[in-house]
Amino acid sequence: MDRSRIAVVTGGAGFIGSHMVDILAERGYKVRVIDSLVGGREINLAGHRANPDVTLDTADIRTLQPAAKAFAGADMVFHFAGIGDIVPSIDRPAEYMSVNVQGTVATLECARHAGVRKFVYAASSSCYGLASVPTPEDHPIDTKYPYALSKYLGEQTAFHWHNVYRLGVNSIRIFNAYGTRSRTTGAYGAVFGVFLRQKLAGQAFTVVGDGTQTRDFVYASDVAEAFYLAGTTERNGQAYNVGNGNPQSINKLIDLIGGARVALPKRPGEPDCTWANVAKITEELGWRPRVSFEEGVAKIIAEIDYWRDAPLWTPTSIAEATKNWFGTLGSST
Fold it and tell me: Which residues are designated catalytic?
């Protein structure tokens, strides 16, 4: 068995995870996907159905045992599995800690017992809170809500396994990833999923605030390439920001998609601008974004039918879904 050509992707039927599977399969790896299919979709792996080197295990990462067969002989583990919805974390903090922290512990133990060379953790830029921009990796941490805390604790757990057990670990702090196959789950949150379903329904886009807020949107395939570089480098114990380095406004996104808009109240605890300083990953790993915002949005619109079965959000349903968010964070920020 050639260990160097086997990779495990947790959450590999999900958004960024499925793009990771694409990259690995294209480069000749045997890819073992672990996904509970709660957030992921088998259709995201449709391009690999005829490839015997891409397999799917529908397991919850929290149930993984240290000797799990999926990890046997693997060289790298790319850990994307977890709960990615932000707003519901206010209502379900214990579940977020269970999946994003304890699930990471279980996955790390599998990697450690299998003698994996490199574990790459999918972290979140939300760990920086209301950060100064452009934001470097050594910016102070300020987790504003349970999702951010759970992802940061998962990252710190991975680094602890590196320090104590000498497991090779790197972390990618993802800014605002977008692209084809972005989630279509029932939880309110990701702007692309909300807008694309509204576009299909001929409904006005629900814009938080005045739409001038900017986000560092980075395309999913560019994110996956960053993970690949973090998995194949000899460097260890490093956290890397991944963003496009060129923030775009929500109004610009609406202009590209095309349609009317309706304003919603600005949410507490959310930054006016996210902007990654990507100098470290550019200098150390040679990574740089390839897909422009305009090109990326065009790719999504070309596959807009993917979101036809996604939930259709309205101002009323959004107000209900974010009621506890306002009630909790409005008094603490």
Answer: 147
Q: Are 25 and 78 in contact (CB under 8 A)?
A: no
Q: Which helix (H) or strand (E) holds 56?
A: strand 54-57
Residue in the block written with tokens 């260890």: 236
Query: DSSP labels for 28-87?
Result: T-EEEEE--SSS--GGGGGGGTT-TTEEEE---GGG--TT-GGGTT-SEEEE--S---SG
Tell me, rounded to whole angstroms, the distance of Cα 112 from its chain centroid.
23
For 193-211, what is each residue's pLDDT tens digit?
Answer: 999 999 999 999 999 999 9
Distance (Å, rounded) from C-alpha 34 to C-alpha 12? 6
The strand pairing partners of 33, in sequence order, are: 9, 56
Q: What is the pLDDT of residues 166-200, one digit of tens each?
A: 999 999 999 999 999 998 877 777 899 999 999 99
pTM for the full predicted model: 0.97
For residue 166, the 8-state DSSP code is -
For residue 237, pLDDT beyond 80: yes
Residue pLDDT, tens place only, 261-302:
999 999 999 999 999 999 999 999 999 999 999 999 999 999
Q: Note the Cα 288 to chain centre separation in Å.
A: 18
Closest CA to 104 of 83, 131, 130, 87: 83
